[in-house]
Queue: 4 jobs
Job 1
Amino acid sequence: MKRKIRLNVNGALYEVFVEPWKTLLHVLREEIGLTGVKSGCEEGECGACTVLVNGKTVNSCLMLASQAQGKEIVTIEGLEGKEGLHPLQQAFVEHFAVQCGFCTPGMILSAKALLDKTPHPTEDEVRVALSGNLCRCTGYFKIVDAVLAVGKKGD
């Protein structure tokens, strides 16, 4: 039996009818159409489905959509502003931190949560913040460089 829930996603309010067992991942992708949220392992291990919920990273494959009601959800689609790409998105491009792109949304959102809390992180802090996100293409060096570059721009 479907139930109506309201989700605040990227500053917009969505009313959707979902089964109680539907995860936030599937509602964002299938009901709202935000395909920047990737479906990887669906076990909370790879980080491809990372979104921000009230400013904290969440594996959306492990959260029921109904649990997200009343919370502020940010996906990769919500980062780009009127001026263009978010500084993290731009840094990933400039530092060639995007390979196949599958892990990129989760990496960027994890990096954003870190930089919101720690504007000038160390390399170790970046690596710890990204440790829940798996990348099979880059070896992480360029990803870490991109996050560190954004942190240094605040100096």
Note: The mean pLDDT is 95.
Job 2
Amino acid sequence: MVSKSTDSFPEKPARDTHAAILAAASVEFSELGYDGAGVDRIAAAAGVNKAMLYYHFGSKRELYLAILREILRVLGARARAIADGPERATVKLDSWIATIIEEAAARPWFPPIMLREMASGAPRLDPETFGLLNAIFGAVRDVLAQGRQENVFDDVDPLLTHLTIMPPILIFFARQRVLATHRASESVFEPRELGDFVTHMQRAARRMVSRDPASPAAAPEPAAVVPSRL
């Protein structure tokens, strides 16, 4: 059995230790990718030793999956709450887009991790994690179905619609790393207000799914995200 001793590191409550490891690992995986991430560096950044890290997370892969599952559970729960709510489908679609952007802004490590994972063929994802991804898609699919019933959405492919919305959001936040070192104006990396991005994505999504892209229903509701520069 692995000892709980942290050697030279001061002992922390289990909950604080768990959270500290997740926070340190999120940064490490987002900056260096799964293969480049080092367990020793993660443990040091979290203020624990490697034995304590493995006590909380049985392996590097389990730690990696725990990070992804945390945000996927949050997104899934919020997406389901939106889909099951009483609002019109157009409002639900706007809310869902604002929610994705809000959660991604709160977790800047998520977009680069997810983009790397998907680009490599998702070799580390397991059935549980895929199930969380499917739960998010299921909620979006239900919103699109409601829109068809309300006769405001066209008969679009739910999966292709979902795949059209998600990548631009991930890329928008992944570009923060570029902005940290390249500040040239009048370029593809020029900063944009977060609120402007929310409105842009809402408008684009509504036009993509609307039966009549020129109708008032294709215009987004006011964004529910506080603008900030990225």
Note: The chain has two domains: 14-58, 61-218.
Job 3
Amino acid sequence: MFEFNIQPFLFPVTKASMVIIFLHVFTFTNAQQQVIPLYKGTSPGSENWNWTEGETYKNPLNIKIVYNVTQPTLIAYLPNPAIANGSAVIICLGGGFHVLLIDSIGTKLATELTKRGIAVFILKYRLAQSFTDDPWKEVTNLMKDSLKFIQKIAPVVKLAGDDLNVSFSYILQHADEFKVDRKRIGVMGLSAGGALAANLAYNYTPETRPAFVAALYTRTSSVKRTSIPQDAPPLFIAAAMDDSTTSISNSVSLYNDWMNSNHSAELHLYTKGGHGLRGFPAESWIIRFEEWLDVLGFLKPKY
């Protein structure tokens, strides 16, 4: 998947540079994860799920993925208080609602965004049941029949959406604890997670309105596309034209919905990058996203 190729600055080791190194290390240490269960006891709607969450490296990327999630959690990465700006983002990762790439993409995103003072909350939402120890192969085969795939994930999409709403409410309730401004909580979704983020962008309540939404290489087939609310949040979209998994028409359609209703949106389409926006320049979407946040004022200090 994508990598953030951030080259280190080379400088002589002086007293001043040692302070910089210390601050960088402290920032990274302070951003380590805190796992927060979303529900007490069994998760509502999946009381009869009796399978066990698992981890595996069986996938073409040879990275750790989780599957069979029944007990959703938030994984919080908080920035160094010295640079925290009060903004926060809930990240919904992808994986066809069968797997989640938390320890690769999720960790990289958290590391990058906490450097910018943003509190990051990775949502490990409920997933469809996998019946083998090779969930990647299962979902890949299932997606060859789009009708069967949609039928299987439909109930899970609803539950995952509930998990996102509960996550939003939890962060609101604990905003002071996390040093987060309640008016600066956004949502980012990648691939399947992008469908969750986009669905919230269309169908939020007054209590769950995100301050901003980012939808990356998103498939909109499971999104309930209602009328755009009058106070719809600004929307950031990115995708690659050579994505063989999800057509860019999904991203273009989202953008058009926002533009046709006179709402703020920014769209980045890359010639190459595939599903995952890998390689240069597609992987620079994260820089464009940070610039977009800055323009909207979400990187300015609030505390």
Note: The CA atoms of residues 114 and 123 lie 16 Å apart.
Job 4
Amino acid sequence: MSTFLVLLREGAEAALIVAIVLAYLCSLNRPDAARLVWAGVGAAVVVSAGAGATLHATLGSLEGRSEEIVEGALAVAAVAVLTWMVFWMAARASALRSRLEGEVAAALSGGGLALAAVGFVAVLREGLETALFLIAAGGAGGAARVAWGAGGLAAAAALGVLAYQGGRRLDLGLFFRVTGGLLILFAAGLLAGAVHEFQEAGVLPAGVDPLWSLRFGDPASGAGWRAAAEVFGWTPAPSLLQVVAYWAYLLPVGVVFVRRSRRKTASASEDPRVAAPVR
């Protein structure tokens, strides 16, 4: 389930960027330049996949305390990047189209490599973030994770197509607010998981562990609890430090996010639906 959420959000950002760029090229009667954008996008996907595979293989070669420390550190890094990404997109969604169109206009005068770089840089950031989040999140492997990931990418691609064909009717601001809120919950769970890894490694004291122990809610007992564990960090037997870390992150970050989202919604001067339809 966490794989679906991460790939939906990151894939949607990448698809939106590509849709804006392609729509602008079409409006300039330069559809021939689209192949350069796709070349940059393809290169970014290859580099991101390679970086993710390398990081996964490196982590897989670790054992014991070293593995726990690295997994905890990756989770903390993922929380930091996730938080930055959510607020960055919330602040800049309304200006995303004009910024990208300016980059494309400059790239057209700079040659094919410059135009390919627009797609490459934009998608590479999303790809590297995705690799970091998926590795930090862990979760179910095998066919289940592939299926969730494919579903997230398919939904993201559909959003990209809608943004390309009729972005004025697509409320991207609402999409980013909803997924942003879910990602903040996801980040809180990641942080609690990082605390658990550091406690297992002896970096943090065990303290009161567990703070409570419930007879229900074992992630291994059903798909619903497993999804809650992957997406929200649910555990039936958390330590005191895990609970403190979870709420110490969720309360202040969540309050700031909700307040900013309300200001954005109430502001008539900011339109988050950034992709114009192509006729």
Note: Residues 268-279 have pLDDT under 50 and may be disordered.
